[in-house]
Amino acid sequence: MINVENVIFSRNNKDILKNVSWSVNKGEHWCLLGLNGSGKTTLLNVINGYIWPMKGKVEVLGNLFGQTNIPELRKEIGWVSSSIQQKFNETDTVLEVVLSGKFASIGLYEHVENNEIEHAKSILRMLNCEKLQFQNYGVISQGERQRVLIARALMSSPKLLILDEPCNGLDLIAREQLLKYIEKIAENPSGPTLIYVTHHVEEILPCFTHSLLMREGEVFSQGATQEQLTEANLSSFFQHPVAVQVQQNRTWIALKEYAEERR
Asked: Residues with Cβ < 8 Å from 1, sequence gap 6 or more?
């Protein structure tokens, strides 16, 4: 699905990505974990062909960069991020926003067939947003917007779905609701491979079989999620002792000094 080998990307004489290598196989769902400035979004931009590495090899969905049509490839990749959320006209209806995903456009300018409208409605139904279809995008809540954008990304039946910090700005209830629907997508055997990007360990759902930990533009570690989210590995990753608890098959962490002070 993704094969990145020894990728280097620099900006203003600063290395943003430093010899990054990463492979994602079909049937795997990955979490990309890293603090702000770790290079996560830059790596996503490389995978989508929005920026070009100075060195290294990039292959996505069997297409070797430099020998493929990037705009055509992007039609097979769904991407949900906060930057996309702000680009839509607030008077567009939810249904129009979702349908625009069929054409990878911001706004709906193409004629749509009845079967495409029904497909959009079925995706909204799966994400419990069908009742919103005729509401203006600008009046729905932040959590609802994120679900609508995921529905839009699914409209083209992508092989790869990238969720770039989708829970940013959500309260606890909205976050957990969104995570529930993301897990539902992951459980669909005919659904896309998921790449979930976050800097919050507790958002890593059991469905994410593998995790890539990035720090300061480098791969810190990668592999099976259970092996990555140990107390020793996370303490080393965050460069601070952390306490780890596993509840409901999810990992929760706290800084050890803070936990000890509370006791």
From this structure: 24, 25, 26, 28, 60, 61, 159, 160, 193
Beta-carbon contacts of 147 under 8 Å, excluding residues fewer than 6 positions away, are 127, 128, 129, 178, 181
pLDDT reading at 259 higher than 70 = no
What residues have CB less than 8 Å from 38, skipping those under 6 apart?
Answer: 199, 214, 215, 216, 217
Average pLDDT score, the chain: 91
The length of the chain is 263
According to DSSP, residue 141 is labeled -
- Can you give the pTM of this predicted structure? 0.91
Q: Which of 126, 127, 145, 143 is nearest to 135 (CA)?
A: 145
DSSP state of 38: S
Average the pLDDT over 167-173 and give the result: 91
Structure confidence at residue 75 (pLDDT): 85
The Cα–Cα gap between 117 and 102 comes to: 10
Distance CA 4, CA 217 (A): 14
- Maximum Cα–Cα distance for the chain, whole Å? 63
